[in-house]
Amino acid sequence: MGRRLPRCRRLRRLPEGRPGPRQGCSHVCWPGEVSEPGAPAGPRWQTQCGIGVALLLTAAALWFDIRNLPVSPAVGVGPSAALKLVGAIVAILGLCHFIGAWRARKVRHSQAVDHGNRASLAIVLAALVGQILLLEVGAGFIFSSLWLFALTARGFGERVGPKSVAIGATLAILVYLFFTKALSLALPAGPLERLFG
């Protein structure tokens, strides 16, 4: 009785009828796997359609602001050329989102309501409307663009923090300096824009 058993005999044998980690567990979802294999990847068609509407509204706002720019006295590229180009690109992106939404709607079989996508769409639209209002009250291009970037990132799931604010402010300042210094275009000025002369 006092004799010790070999180490290999001290291990308890598993029951033969119990399935292993890869047997008989067809309903187990490992981390990172999609629970519905047949579900299409990518955003829902409602989200793509909403983003397309937001892009078209942005393009319309850009083309509306072009009318306030001074007319170039010489023949050639005027101050409104860059804004026209940006507005056209944004409008094309909006139309592409509508095409993608139409295709996604045709292949989607599930009609379940996704409240997360609705919330994201509402945040993106609020960012666009907020930018227009900030420009109207004289907040300036940099602050309104920072607002648009931060809320759009929040709508796509990014937490609004120092990182998002720093990236948005850097991009807004670079775009402002490019248009005002390199292209000599007048953008809406506010308290921050006056610091750059």
TrEMBL record:
InterPro entries: DUF1468 (IPR009936). The chain crosses the membrane at residues 49-66, 81-102, 123-150, 165-187. It holds the Pfam family TctB. Keywords: Membrane, Transmembrane, Transmembrane helix. Residues 51-188 form the DUF1468 domain. It comes from the Bacteria. This is Tripartite tricarboxylate transporter TctB family protein.
